[in-house]
Each structure stands twice: as C-alpha cells, then as structure tokens.
Design goal:
The structure holds 2 protein chains of 2 kinds.
Chain A: H1 4-30, H2 38-54, H3 59-82, H4 88-107, E1 111-113, H5 120-129, H6 133-143, H7 154-173, H8 177-187, H9 189-193, H10 199-225, E2 227-229, H11 236-251, H12 256-279, H13 288-329
Antiparallel strand pairs in A: 1-2
Helix pairs in contact in A: 1-7, 1-10, 1-11, 1-12, 2-3, 2-4, 2-10, 3-4, 3-10, 7-12, 8-10, 11-12, 11-13, 12-13
Chain B: E1 2-11, E2 19-29, E3 34-39, H1 45-53, E4 60-65, E5 68-69, H2 75-78, E6 82-85, H3 99-107, H4 121-132, H5 151-163, E7 169-173, H6 181-198, E8 201-205, H7 209-214, E9 218-223, E10 226-232, H8 233-238, H9 241-252
Parallel strand pairs in B: 3-8, 3-9, 6-7, 7-8
Antiparallel strand pairs in B: 1-2, 1-4, 4-5, 9-10
Helix pairs in contact in B: 3-5, 5-6
Classes of the chains: A mainly alpha, B alpha/beta.
The complex binds adenosine-5'-diphosphate and magnesium ion.
Adenosine-5'-diphosphate binds next to β2 and α1 of chain B.
Chain lengths: 330, 264
Amino acid sequence: MFSFIAIFGAVESGVIYAIMALGVYLSFRVLDFPDLTVDGSFVTGAAVAGISIMHGVSPVLATLLAAVAGFIAGCVTGVLHTKGKINALLSGILMMIALYSINLRIMGRPTLSLLNETTIFKQLRDFWSGTGLDTFFNGMLAAIGMERFPATWAIVLVMMVVTLAIKFITDYYLKTEIGLALRATGDNQRMIRSFSANTDNLIIVGIGYSNALVAFSGALIAQHGGFADVGMGIGMIIIGLASVIIGEALFGTKTIARATIAVIGGAVIYRIVVTIALRVDFLDTGDMKLITAVLVIAALVAPKMMQTHREKKRRQRKRAELERIKVGEV
Amino acid sequence: MLQLKDISMTFNEGTPDEKIALQHTNLELERGEFVTIIGSNGAGKSTLMNVISGNLIPDVGDVFINEKQVVHLPEYQRSAYIGRVFQDPMAGTAPSMTIEENLALAYSRNKKRTLRLGVNKKRKTLFKEYLETLHLGLEDRLNAKVGFLSGGERQALSLLMATFTNPNILLLDEHTAALDPSRAALITKLTKEVVGKSKLTTLMVTHNMQQALDLGTRLIMMDKGQIIFDVSGEEKQKLTIEDLLTEFQRIRGQKFESDRAVLG
Ligand SMILES: Nc1ncnc2c1ncn2[C@@H]1O[C@H](COP(=O)(O)OP(=O)(O)O)[C@@H](O)[C@H]1O
Ligand SMILES: [Mg+2]
C-alpha cells in the first residue's frame, strides 16, 4: 500500500518545491503576470548551484548564487515586458527558451551528476547525525508500531523551517510600502501610477524576486536529487500553478498570510497525490504530466461545479417551498 | 501654480480616424483657484486633464507646475504633485486590497516608498480620523476589501485618497457622473468641503451645468479642443444656465449640443 516512507518522501520534496510555488504565486497572483520564465529559471538555479559546487564553492553560497541568477533572469523578463512592451506571456516564453541554451552553456553538458559532491543536504545530514534527533523521532515511530524508518528527518524539518521563513519574509515584504505598491500594480496599475509609483520598476523587481525563489528551489531540488538536468524544468510552471490552485481551493486566500500558507500546503499535497497516483499499477512516471493536468483541471472546475450544484439545490428547494404554499392555499 | 502653453494634441494623425483633441490651448491657474470645466462630448476636457497628469504627452506645448517644466516627466513622477479622481469608481482604488492598505498607498504619494510597514498603529489612527470626515462609517471597516464597497463609498474613498496628502493640483474628471443622484450629491458636498478646507488648486470637469455654476471660483467652457469661455470672480457668481447657453450660441453660432449636458 502507500507506505509511510513514500509519503514522507513526498512531503520532503513538497516543501522544497513549495518555494518554487511561492514564486509562481507572486507572479501569477500578486502581480497578475503569467510568467513562463519559471521552466527556464528553475534549471538555471540547478545549473548554477551544480556547477558552483563542482568547482568547490560552498553549497550554501552556491545555492544563494543560484537565487541571484534567477533574480537576474526574472528581471530580464520584466524588462522585456515593461521597456520592450512585449506581451507578458510572450516575454516569459522568450526568456524560457533563451534560458534553455544559457543553462546548457552554464553546465557545459546536458546533465551534471552531484552524487559524489558535497551538497547542502549532505552537510546537513552530517551535522544532524551528531544530534541524535533521528533516533528520537524514529523511536516515536517505533512506539506506534512502525517497522521502517525514513533515512533522515533533517531535510524535511530544516526545509520546513526554511520554507516558512521565506513565507514570513514574503508576507512582510508584501505589507511594506514597496510591497503594497507591488500588489497595487497587479491590482490596478492605472491607479497606483496616479499615486507616484513606478510600475515598470515594481514589475521588474517583482518578477525578479519570483524567479529568485524559483531558482533557489531548483538549486535545492538538484542537490536533493543528486543531479541537474537541462530538461528538469519542463512543465515546472504547471506544477507551480497546480500547487497554487490546489492550495487556494483547499485553504482559501482571505489574507496574504493565508494565501502563502495555502500555496505551501498545495505544493505538498500535489506531491503526495502524484506519489499515490504513480503507485497505481497502470500508471508510470511518463504519465506524471497527464496526472498534473488532470489535477489542475479538477482544482479549477470542482469548486465551480460545487457552487453551481449548491445554487441548483437552493433553487429547487425554493421552488418546492412555493409549490407547497400554493397547494396549501388551494 | 499651473501653466499650459499652446498645447495641441491630435489622435491618429493622418488616418481617417484623425481626431483633434486640443488646439493651441492656453491656461493659467493661480494657487487656490477652483476651476469647473464644461463642454460638449469630445470637446477635449479629458485630454486636457490627461495632459496635465502626464498620462498623455501633447504633440506640442509646455506644461509648468510651480514654474517647473514637466511636460516630459512621466505620470508616476508628476503624480507626486497631482491628485486625481476618475469618472469610473473602480479606477481610483485597488479592489483586492483593504481600505487601510489603499490609504497607505495614497499616503506614500509624496514620500519615498521604503521597506517599512505601510500600515502601522500611528497611521491607522490617522486614517481613521480622515475616514471619519466622510461620515460613511468606513472608519470601522479598515480591514474590509475595497472591492466590496459600493460605487459611492469607493468614490468617496478615492476623493479622500487623492486629497489627504494635500497635492498641489487636484484633477476631477466627471467624478460624480457614474453615481446615482443622491450619491453624486454626497460626493459633490465632500468635494466642496475638502477643496475649501485645504485650499487645493482644483480642476473639475462636470457635465452638470448647475454644479459647474455652484462650485468653484472660475468656470471654463471648452469646445472642439479650445477654451471658448472663461469667467471668474463676481462675474461667475452672477452667471446662470441661460447665460451659458446664450454665450455658447453667440461664440459658436450654433446651439449647445450635448445629450449628456444636464441643464437642471
Ligand atoms: N485615446 C484616444 N484615441 C483616439 N481618439 C481619442 C482618444 N482619446 C480621446 N480621443 C478623441 O479626442 C477628442 C477629445 O476627447 P476627450 O478629451 O475625451 O473629450 P471630452 O472628455 O471632452 O468628452 C474626441 O474626439 C475623442 O474621440
Ligand atoms: Mg471626458
């Protein structure tokens, strides 16, 4: 059946992908900018981190460099749109395909193996094994009758802290004077320009920040999986959107803080659903994109269908009531 | 305070759609003047406002604010001095943000935006005080999203947001036209109060002649991209709607035509 270990693994990668999903939330929802740079900048993050680590840069610094590279990529998309007056969708697509070649150049070959390198997670596990925390958590699992234990608790716990930290920083940023202007840019551009905000710069920085998060996530995924591949970003934007949409449908969007936690939840749930789906006999890894598409469609359509259904029920009830009153009168 | 010198503006020049919006328009405003602008549809009133705000760059002509040439300053830089309320109640606020967040956006108009919180305790108190002047109870709904407000409430909020930082110039473009009569009257009253209290230099476009006569210290009539009539002071106080119609006929040699011109 669906083993605890498999779900554990899904949560682990889910919280890392959640950072990418937060980036997608920023562009699609906050800035109302359908940015497709993501498919490219995710790999840029993986490539920059991978090649840096292979050249002896410390993994933490390599991961931060990846975020900077993503920021620059996003800014270029923003400039194409605001200064070049290119349609938002097209700006992102252009940047995405340009990044494909750039990513190949950065890596020098289509795939980098990081299995024998000191990644950020290897360092983390080395440090963690000295703390004895794994024994503690696995002991708790044993106490409730589990027989197999995850390899380490370090990644899932530390990544939860990192992802939540990014969430809180983002929440705060969106409430600052600059952050409010950024949100207004996505909400009513004409209005915020009449309150002396440079919307071009806000869009450029906003899309930069979004792609910095995406590349940061890509750098971590590469180190987690032990490789960087030029094709690893294909469909990433849909995975990000799936996380955003699933999260919003399940947890709501009342406030910014609520929406960002919803996005993180959506990313984790997406991973769990995919993991479970792949364990079904007739589905294999090649079907993952199809599963993703179906999930997104379901998350988009289901809430509307439920709404329509409720409305229909309500109308039927009303009509039945009126009928009853009429019959009573006769 | 504000000077427009020989402004001309043509849309779609050289095409069958060519529209002359402004022709050699000159206008000078003293500090504290409150000018109402009337004129038929397509007279160029909105274009004039857009040229002042920087939303449009004129083909030729200069715009000076406080003796400073601003004609090439982009809108976002000029709007540090200029407050605007649009005709569409949806246009002046950010619907998915709360009332206090919208006020914070407006509060930063003439300051550099920083990484400090846009809404803090001190500002909340300040925002409440400002909202109380509207008498709409909005001060108790600081955390309500502006998208849920009615058109009248949104327009009152827009007016407050455009004025509470005391801009050098206030531009109102038919800002009561999309509201029902009672709401329009409320916004007109608020406009009178706020402009009077802060002595704002104001340009107000209206299609309601009576409103143009009742409000302001000066009245301008526009037609076919030109200012054809300009009165102020006592002369304006004595003016009636009949005078305006006669004046138009005398200058243009034809009847004032505007389906939207409300005579009463
Ligand atoms: N963006 C535009 N493109 C083309 N023509 C325009 C545009 N804006 C205004 N016009 C034309 O310029 C003229 C003046 O318009 P406008 O200033 O909106 O008039 P008013 O506000 O007095 O009704 C009209 O003939 C109008 O059709
Ligand atoms: Mg107009």
